[in-house]
Structure to design on (488 residues):
């Protein structure tokens, strides 16, 4: 007989912690990580941090300047002032005047997340990546008939250093008794403690994680949220009814700003009230899938299956979007940005060995209205210029252009390169070889070491463009390059 235990790991204040780990002079200070730096806006004043190589922003351009720098991550110290991810930089500075804003280093974050997921795989082959800084791990524990003495020995092994173990902030929603079922949870706690130690050893002493352990995926994530930072929380099946009485429904992953008001209108504000709601009503209001899930999770039924990120199906699309530092009224300038995005899409397609034949373009205007269109073509594409040409043709369909705030381009209807035929004509074969040679150079010496001349000025204006956030991008293929040695 086996019992499934789910462990959820969440790196505390991930982006900011990575910068504090890389630059010790930032530790203990309120910092915010922004996706843009002063090279994208002449209105920023720049100050160099001594001997660190980091960059901080001085005064931020206000709304009149058109700057939309967004805080992608805040440190634990900044969060105490109310700074949150997704907040504009001027709002963050208003809440915390002493905040230090640093430019994001996505290469560092992706590299480190790969290493963390690789460490998790030491304990189970089933690691499901939830985001760049979160993952689930399934622990299949074989239940045995254990004596109280045997279980106490396992507890003693976990608690072998009481002073160190107190640092893990272990929190049980209920105290573990001496039963056979507790062996599975004790085993999970032992793995959680080892994970915390491994991460501090292999990733950095400043890096902490919060871990939740429960019998289901949603409840494991809830457990990890109950105690931050550096927490370790266990929720057992018999604990559910008690915590459901006082836990708001928005604490459950999957109930956000859209579902919560609708549930509140039905008189549902806690998990216990959700469990008391008739299943038929929830299905009628929210549909079969969402309504059934709400009814189940409200009753403590949490049996979602986990899949290893190494077993994920092939992605259905590859794309890039970018929010412009300033609204662009000229479609010629918008097309230049789209060329850069298309090149990035092409690079990612080739790295993944994929090709696509449907190109989609989405544009958001200054007044928050949007426009989108897609086009299916005859031949499969994996080259940035070819993708751009289709996208530019789609942009020409906009009848009444307005200043553009965001642009996105995506390639779908994907197949693997081995499923397509090689180019027939010599000129196309040589062009494909040229693109492959450029990829090799850029992979070795850095992205856009070799690039199209049309991108020269645009590359300077759009620096450190974030890579795609598809979770499949975070496969732990560890390289020998350590981004902690790099300087932004």
């Amino acid at each position: 007989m086996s019992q499934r235990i789910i462990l959820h790991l969440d790196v505390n204040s991930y982006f900011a912690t990575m910068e504090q780990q890389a630059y010790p002079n930032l530790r203990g200070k309120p910092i915010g990580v922004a996706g843009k730096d002063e090279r994208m806006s002449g209105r920023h004043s720049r100050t160099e941090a001594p001997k660190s190589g980091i960059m901080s922003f001085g005064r931020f351009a206000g709304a009149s300047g058109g700057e939309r720098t967004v805080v992608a991550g805040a440190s634990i110290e900044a969060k105490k002032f109310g700074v949150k991810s997704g907040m504009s930089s001027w709002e963050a500075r208003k809440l915390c005047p002493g905040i230090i804003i640093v430019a994001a280093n996505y290469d560092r974050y992706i590299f480190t997340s790969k290493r963390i997921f690789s460490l998790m795989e030491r304990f189970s082959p089933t690691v499901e990546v939830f985001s760049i800084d979160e993952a689930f791990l399934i622990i299949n524990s074989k239940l045995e008939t254990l004596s109280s003495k045997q279980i106490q020995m396992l507890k003693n092994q976990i608690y072998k250093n009481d002073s160190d173990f107190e640092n893990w902030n272990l929190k049980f929603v209920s105290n573990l008794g001496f039963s056979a079922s507790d062996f599975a949870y004790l085993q999970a706690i032992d793995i959680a403690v080892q994970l915390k130690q491994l991460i501090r050893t292999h990733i950095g002493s400043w890096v902490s994680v919060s871990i939740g352990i429960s019998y289901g995926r949603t409840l494991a994530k809830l457990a990890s949220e109950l105690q931050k930072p550096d927490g370790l929380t266990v929720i057992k099946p018999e604990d559910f009814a008690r915590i459901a009485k006082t836990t708001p429904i928005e604490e459950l992953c999957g109930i956000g700003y859209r579902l919560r008001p609708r549930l509140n209108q039905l008189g549902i504000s806690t998990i216990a009230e959700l469990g008391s709601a008739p299943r038929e009503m929830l299905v009628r209001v929210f549909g079969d899938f969402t309504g059934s899930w709400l009814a189940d999770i409200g009753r403590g039924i949490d049996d979602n299956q986990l899949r290893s990120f190494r077993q994920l199906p092939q992605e259905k699309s590859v794309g890039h979007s970018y929010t412009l530092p300033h609204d662009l009224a000229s479609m010629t300038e918008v097309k230049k940005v789209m060329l850069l995005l298309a090149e990035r899409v092409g690079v990612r397609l080739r790295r993944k060995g994929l090709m696509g034949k449907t190109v989609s373009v989405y544009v958001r205007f200054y007044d928050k209205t949007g426009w989108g269109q897609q086009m299916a073509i005859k031949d499969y594409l994996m080259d940035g210029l070819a993708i751009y040409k289709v996208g530019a043709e789609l942009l020409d369909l906009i009848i009444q252009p307005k200043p553009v705030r965001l642009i996105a381009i995506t390639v779908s209807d994907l197949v693997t390169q081995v499923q397509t035929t090689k180019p027939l004509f010599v000129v196309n074969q040589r062009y494909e070889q040229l693109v492959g040679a450029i990829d090799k150079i850029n992979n070795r010496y850095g992205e856009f070491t070799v690039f199209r001349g049309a991108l020269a000025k645009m590359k300077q204006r759009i620096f450190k463009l974030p890579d795609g956030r598809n979770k499949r991008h975070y496969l732990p293929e560890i390289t020998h390059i350590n981004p902690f040695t790099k300087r932004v």
Summary: The first strand starts at residue 2 and ends at 11. The chain is about 35% helix and 20% strand. The two ends are 52 Å apart (CA to CA). The chain has a mean pLDDT of 77.
